[in-house]
Specification:
By secondary structure, chain A is α/β, with parallel strands linked by helices. Chain A is 35% helix and 14% strand. Chain A has two domains: 13-49 and 312-412, Aspartate Aminotransferase, domain 1; 54-310, 3-Layer(aba) Sandwich (Aspartate Aminotransferase, domain 2), CATH 3.40.640.10. In chain A, helix 3 packs parallel to helix 8 (299-307).
Chain lengths: 413, 413
């Protein structure tokens, strides 16, 4: 009798973004004349055209596949050398960070990688810490893997260590005073837009090395960091190669949310323990996982990603980042003028805003939807400590952002 | 102290295709003048140009992404409706098979899907049966998930039920005389090229329904079936919607091994048991798995796959299948003339050949490499029951296949 994975039944039904979509649908069905006015600043999805450097590379790759002499079938599961080498050079080595091409695993997305990474760890035997608020995928994949008990009434899962991020700690959590085995960190942060200083990241690396903890470092938004003092990679921190895996993506810098390409760095030095207490490197395990359960990202897509590293591609990526960061500045300014507490949006594409006195996250969501036809993300959807906040995404056209700012001022000013 | 997944350490080091690559490399390094002569009929990778219908659709999709008005970011994790509906209509409903668009989950590959599907089952609580010989991914992913003990000296993993496929049973295994929870079936078969009759598949469905077994049916090669009496889908068999998941791919029919697109069908009726013995549908579990750990196949790739369902696309796919099947006929003929026992290659792109008296699979591999510079796949690499056979892939140019046939006749005739 086939048995299903019971852990799935612990998952709370209302995943955040489907619930948002449901409420928007209900609203526009009830007020169809308002439907066209809705401006979506909820989910962090890019809106601007794919860079020409990527498109040209993709067109050329499609043409290559049309000729028998240049046709390519199965590629290396870990990614083509042309892309792994471009990443190693441009994303790391040119910035003085030691990451080799063969430590880079190209994939079809960071969501996949941050979820699948649990495959190489012992399910049920590791204690996991996450920040609160948090990107829901880290939590849900730990639930699926059996690393938690059931959720309580507040939605917190038994067995997870929640690290609250609040205005008091500038949304960078304190180092835990107990050992944990896996810690998810995301800087620049989704959802709060917070960044971590070199000293803060050094403290995490020191903790991880002292406790044999693995840091799962999500750097999907590193391209939005403007302050040269803020690390863009965990591997800028001495000792991180012993204790960290880094996830990066072309989604938000290159506009690849629909094209799908990302990569994960597993340093050669990184180890974990067997149940017998033997220390083994993780690189071969992830390599085996990817070779067995993945067949490489699309050749056409990998060529597109490599196109982003040309001079033209780098200039186009910089222009995209400029565009979204100017949006973030406008959104910050509008919320500040209204008199709300505003965080993030400086080295990150997310603006994290405190709700007015007496309004909770979902109340604010409903109010902005109904009064301003602006869709935001309720902070409580990212965890209990997100209650009282909402997130505005800067991923939009300038026109939409300017209009959203006008309406926010009108509804809340 | 982070603990790794010990089950990975049970995996045997020599995955088949890397070992083949190693031996080919060693040979060509020792005999560099022969390197250019090597003809690869080992791994089942397509060689012919990507159909124009797919390329044109991909070019158009890339252009769409270059305009803000038609730009698309995140798509539905389960696939775009345009592709799910095309699959439902063309691959199933037009053949009288009941599969709805929302039962189809588009992905980036069947290797991924056949591996990831174990996520929704209870690891360690299900007994799995596989055929022998078998596509190694089914075995390795069960090892990784903790559904087996260690391998014995012959490479067989404790806890798996191996179903031997031999000339005596026409390479379709007997129904087990004990209950199992999960069974992997692949027809047309990789590696033997065998197909299963309607009666044989009905017997599997009856067994599965009687024992609450899930059939994991890999139909990646269904397009190669020419005989109208042979089912192309498990869902042609009455009762299969209660007990089967089907995996299909655009890799081998549309030449998508490098482009990456596949799909998995999970019928609404399909259920499995919780540990408490409650019966629950699997469709929501797989949907949740894909929503949480996957972000949809590339938009460009999905447009390419949909292009294969146009009239032009269908004609181009048919021409590709014709091409590879004519290759298979030539390879069959050559091996028959040599006097070797020949199987498969009629409704499948793989020809399964018995070794001459006294030569084992790897011996044959080495001999063909050294004497004919033809790379085949040793049957023993697919399991103990594959010993004494080798597989020749029909995925090649006509020129290469004709030359390979000449050399096989010369070396073995």
């Amino acid at each position: 009798m086939a048995r299903l994975n019971d852990h799935y039944l612990k998952l709370r039904a209302g995943y955040l973004f489907p619930e948002i979509a449901r409420r928007v649908r209900a609203y526009t069905e009830a007020a169809p004349d308002q439907a066209a006015r809705v401006i979506r600043c909820g989910i962090g999805d890019v809106t601007e055209p794919l860079p020409a450097a990527a498109r040209e590379a993709m067109h050329a790759a499609v043409d290559e596949l049309g000729e028998r002499g240049s046709f390519r079938g199965y590629g290396p599961e870990q990614g083509y050398d042309f892309l792994r080498e471009a990443i190693a050079t441009h994303a790391y080595q040119s910035r003085g960070v030691e990451v080799a091409a063969d430590e880079i695993f190209v994939s079809d997305g960071s969501k996949c990688d941050t979820g699948n990474i649990l495959d190489i760890f012992a399910n049920g035997a590791n204690r996991t810490a996450i920040t609160d608020p948090v990107y829901p995928v880290y939590v849900d994949t730990n639930v699926m893997a059996g690393n938690t008990g059931p959720a309580d009434a507040s939605g917190a899962y038994e067995g997870l260590l929640y690290l609250p991020c609040t205005a008091a700690n500038d949304f960078v959590p304190a180092i835990p005073d107990e050992p944990v085995d896996l810690v998810y960190l995301c800087y620049p942060n989704n959802p709060t837009g917070a960044t971590a200083t070199r000293e803060q990241l050094q403290a995490w690396v020191d903790y991880a090395r002292a406790n044999d903890t693995i840091l799962l470092f999500d750097a999907a938004y590193e391209a939005f960091i403007r302050d040269p003092e803020i690390p863009r990679s965990i591997f800028e921190i001495p000792g991180a190669r012993d204790c960290a895996i880094e996830f990066r993506s072309f989604s938000k810098n290159g506009g690849f949310t629909g094209v799908r390409c990302a990569y994960t760095v597993v340093p050669g030095e990184l180890t974990a323990l067997t149940s017998a207490g033997e220390r083994k490197p993780l690189h071969p395990l992830w390599s085996r996982r990817q070779s067995t359960k993945f067949n490489g990202a699309s050749y056409v897509v990998q060529r597109g990603a490599a196109g982003l590293f040309t001079d033209q591609g780098q200039a186009e990526v910089a222009a995209l980042i400029d565009h979204y960061m100017a949006n973030a500045a406008l959104l910050r300014e509008a919320c500040q003028q209204i008199g709300l507490p505003v965080y993030g949006g400086v080295n990150a594409p997310y603006v994290w805003v405190g709700c007015p006195e007496g309004v909770d996250s979902w109340g604010m969501f409903d109010r902005l939807l109904q009064q301003a036809q602006v869709v935001v993300t309720p902070g409580a959807g990212f965890g209990a400590a997100g209650e009282g906040y909402f997130r505005i995404s800067a991923f939009n056209s300038r026109e939409n952002v300017e209009e959203a700012c006008r309406r926010l001022r009108q509804a809340l000013g």
